[in-house]
Amino acid sequence: MSSNIIFISTLIILWYSSNIGVLLLNKLLLSNYGFKFPIFLTMCHMSACAILSYVSIVFLKIVPLQKIKSRGQFLRIGCLSVVFCGSVVGGNISLRYLPVSFNQAVGATTPFFTAMFAYLMTWKREAWVTYGALVPVVTGVVIASGGEPSFHLFGFIMCISATAARAFKSVLQGILLSSEGEKLNSMNLLLYMSPIAIAVLLPAALVMEPDVLT
């Protein structure tokens, strides 16, 4: 029991550390060092995910390889991948204009958007206590937005859009991959989502960020 708690605690710490590390590195690249290609940066991110997930599954065999069983399942994974791309690109763009602390404050509204999308798409209602707990969170973000000295409207819109896209992906993932016969574990899902994301982001980067090649 104690070893299981230690293992789960370690995973949580690694998850928080990696998220904070990626966020700070993205901020350094996009803001401090003037790297102006958030779409290309997201494509590099997804390329790394594709390579590492492939190595972890095929060579290290951390989890067994699961195959896509139908065209419908592939289309659902593709839909998730596009939404995920939108959330990451929006988050990276917002980091060019907003400080990390404010970016994370806005990200705290994710549960609000998740509850909203869950109700709109599945008619799933949470307890009133849950909705009540979201009120001070949203209120706090509104107050913080009004008093943020580095507030940037476009950056704020992109940050809110990225937050909503992350919540939408969570709900969509629960709906589209709920079939017992087509469930994928998180690593296999990433393995299949990453190449699709690269295929979407590469032409977008070439069209919208042509200077990345110079």
From TrEMBL:
Lineage runs:
Eukaryota, Viridiplantae, Streptophyta, Embryophyta, Tracheophyta
Protein name (Swiss-Prot/TrEMBL) = Sugar phosphate transporter domain-containing protein
- UniProt keyword annotations, A-Z: Membrane, Transmembrane, Transmembrane helix
Q: List the membrane topology term(s).
A: Multi-pass membrane protein
| Any Gene Ontology CC annotation | membrane
Cellular location of this protein?
A: Membrane
Record field: transmembrane? 5-25, 37-62, 74-95, 101-121, 128-145, 151-168, 189-208
The record places domain Sugar phosphate transporter at 8-210
Q: Which Pfam families would you find in this protein's record?
A: TPT (PF03151)
InterPro entries in the cross-refs: Sugar_P_trans_dom, TPT_transporter
